[in-house]
Design a protein that fits this description.
This protein has 155 residues and is α+β, with helices and mostly antiparallel strands. It contains three helices and five strands. The chain is globular, with a radius of gyration of 15 Å.
């Protein structure tokens, strides 16, 4: 077990299987020392635990938890092409999308769920730049979607 996966276990988390693509793309692609993930939905066992807009059908607190799940799914996608999460030198960028009710403006707080999970699991390597974007709708009516870019250590 890698040190990163041991840290996940210490936090009571398990790295899930990679979420299969919903269309014509790969869950993650490696280019040199960088891994770019596709947008990861908060899928758990092949299903979305909640659907709808944040600030309407989904509370900001629920969405924050869903963003954590998205980040966990993103780490699984990274592992699928990197082979070992201990090769992560740092998380470079996180981009999060929040399906938002018209008057909802708390996207950054929702995305803190993903950012904080990466920090808990990776420590200083999890500190990153980030964008938090409100959108009208996401695939499958998901409340949140997260993609990450990581830099790997040389093999």
């Amino acid at each position: 077990m890698s040190a990163v996966e041991a840290k996940l276990a210490e936090l009571g988390l398990t790295l899930p299987d990679v979420v299969p693509p919903l269309a014509a793309y790969q869950p993650a692609v490696r280019s040199g020392v960088y891994v770019y993930t596709a947008g990861q939905l908060p899928m758990v066992d092949g299903k979305l635990p909640l659907t709808g807009k944040v600030g309407a059908e989904v509370t900001p607190e629920e969405a924050r938890d869903l963003a954590r799940t998205c980040a966990l799914n993103a780490l699984a996608a990274v592992k699928s092409v990197a082979g070992d999460l201990d090769r992560i030198a740092r998380v470079v960028k996180v981009v999060g999308f929040v399906a938002s009710a018209a008057d909802f403006t708390g996207q950054p707080a929702v995305l803190n769920g993903a950012s904080e999970l990466l920090g808990e699991v990776l420590g200083d390597k999890g500190v990153h730049a980030r964008s938090a974007v409100g959108v009208a709708v996401l695939p499958l009516d998901a409340p949140v979607e997260v993609e990450i870019q990581v830099e790997l250590t040389e093999a």
